[in-house]
Write a structure and sequence with these properties.
By secondary structure, the chain is mostly helical. It contains 23 helices and no strands. Helix 6 packs antiparallel against helix 7 and helix 9 runs antiparallel to helix 21.
Length: about 475
């Protein structure tokens, strides 16, 4: 059987109930309500892991086309169902994931991590900062936060912990491993929030914000990176200290860690040609994504972010750093393109059919009925409800797709400054990764290594969520005011 019967049955029952049993509210068209039924059933199936998310995306595309909820013409309906496969934002993430494969293939990701540890790894706290700095360094070009935190940084972290005899199987995880594992994990949501290309769902946030504001708020790569720079750096400075206070390691002085890292670098030898080419491509991508050519030479020399990603990939292919076979093996990139396209398509047509506007009015009316004065307390409640609803989600993409559009539109209706609230919601869309051991793909990788108990993980997650949202609300809002964003 290609699906899990119980979660699939639950998802099907929810969809059928909305379609046939619950009447469409006044002001909502029948097509919009039916598309909502398909959408909610898809999200429920994703949460319940009834099938791989790519397979569920294929089913969703099929059902939207067959049901004709976007058009009564079959040819138009299938065109609508496939429409998001042409989205530049989706291909930006897919191509960037392909580029990030070179980090593992060449060994550059590991070299960067060991280099930081060799520089500042004489104390446990220093190793924590080194892991965070390594994550930050490769974040702009690794849209798979799971590959970054779980595939590149985590093996380095485990190697360091093992060199100090800190092993969960021996009951010695508290020596240093627990602390490093938590820092390894909690750097991931922060760096994910700092760049559009640091995690796959961020472009979805960009699209939903543009749709809600009629394209009046456009979050470019450079705008996002500049906006998140100061709060992100402040969060990265605080996070290792907070984890250190929560779960202090037994070993605090680690002069051998720097020696261990230097030994690993010696084993790797000098930088290879592939690593040097990859570094050059990273520099080129950051140069183009930051909009430097257009700032210096004018708008005629502007390069679209997705075009820049294709340029970087083309250079790696021409230089032989990546081969076509490498791209074919990069299943996560093709998987992301498929499921991302399906979810973006459904969210887009829910908005076009008026469902998101109706839902945002309902949320606005509900919060307005609480008697809160001004937009600040009302939107604060919205932001916190959105953030902590992630306890019910095992996918940031599913959460953002299901809730972001309506909650953001409700915040605008309540009077929130569009740019300010967009950035706060974008930050919350990444901060929510801190909460649970199933919050995002990175969490089961690191939690599964056994360095922390479930209670320790959830406690650290909640504390860090509070710290990070406070940092973004106060440091972020002040920074954005200075930048003139609101």
């Amino acid at each position: 059987m290609g699906f899990k019967p119980i979660p699939m049955s639950i998802a099907l029952a929810i969809g059928l109930a909305i379609w046939f049993v619950v009447p469409a509210p006044q002001g909502v068209s029948a097509d919009a309500w039916r598309l909502l039924a398909l959408f909610v059933a898809t999200i429920a199936a994703i949460i319940g892991k009834a099938m791989p998310i790519g397979a569920l995306a294929m089913l969703a595309i099929t059902l939207v086309a067959i049901a004709g909820v976007t058009s009564d013409k079959p040819a138009t309906a299938i065109a609508d169902a496939l429409s998001s496969f042409s989205s530049p934002l989706i291909w930006l993430i897919g191509v960037a994931i392909m580029i990030s494969r070179a980090l593992i293939k060449t060994g550059l990701g590991a070299r960067i991590g060991y280099r930081f540890i060799a520089l500042v790894g004489k104390r446990t706290l220093g190793i924590g900062y080194a892991l965070a700095a390594a994550d930050l360094t490769i974040a702009p070009v690794t849209p798979s936060n799971t590959a970054r935190g779980g595939g590149i940084i985590h093996p380095i972290m485990r190697g360091i912990a093992g060199s100090f005899g800190s092993d969960p199987e021996q009951g010695t995880q508290n020596r240093i491993g627990r602390y490093l594992a938590l820092v390894n994990y909690h750097a991931n949501p922060i760096t994910s929030a700092m760049f559009i290309t640091a995690t796959a769902p961020n472009p979805l946030v960009v699209k939903l914000v543009a749709e809600a504001t009629g394209a009046q708020v456009q979050l470019s790569w450079g705008t996002w990176a500049l906006a998140m720079l100061l709060p992100g750096l402040a969060a990265l400075l605080l996070m290792p200290l907070v984890i250190y206070w929560l779960y202090p390691p037994e070993i605090k002085s680690t002069p051998d860690a720097a020696h261990f890292a230097r030994g690993k670098l010696h084993e790797m030898g000098p930088m290879t040609r592939g690593e040097k080419v990859l570094l050059g491509v990273f520099a080129l991508l950051l140069f183009l994504w930051a909009g430097v050519p257009e700032r210096i030479l004018g708008d005629a020399f502007a390069v679209d972010a997705t075009t820049a990603a294709f340029v970087g990939l083309a250079v790696l292919l021409l230089a032989g750093v990546l081969a076509w076979e490498d791209l074919l093996k990069e299943k996560s990139a093709w998987d992301t393109i498929v499921w991302f396209s399906a979810l973006v398509m459904m969210a887009t047509y829910l908005n076009r059919l008026g469902l998101i506007a109706w839902l945002s009015r309902a949320i606005e009316t509900g919060i307005g009925g609480l008697g809160l004065e001004g937009w600040v307390p009302a939107c604060s409640l919205l932001l916190l409800a959105y953030l902590y609803a992630h306890y019910m989600f095992a996918s940031t993409t599913a959460h953002i797709t299901a809730m972001f559009g309506a909650f953001y539109a409700a915040g605008l209706a309540l009077g929130a400054p569009p740019f300010l609230f967009a950035l706060l919601m974008a930050a919350a869309s990444n901060i929510m990764m801190t909460l649970t051991h199933y919050a995002t793909g990175t969490s089961p990788v690191i939690f599964g290594s056994g360095y922390t108990t479930l209670g320790e993980w959830w406690k650290a997650g909640f504390v860090m969520s509070v710290v990070l949202i406070v940092v973004w609300v106060f440091v972020g809002a002040l920074w954005w005011k200075l930048l003139g964003y609101w």
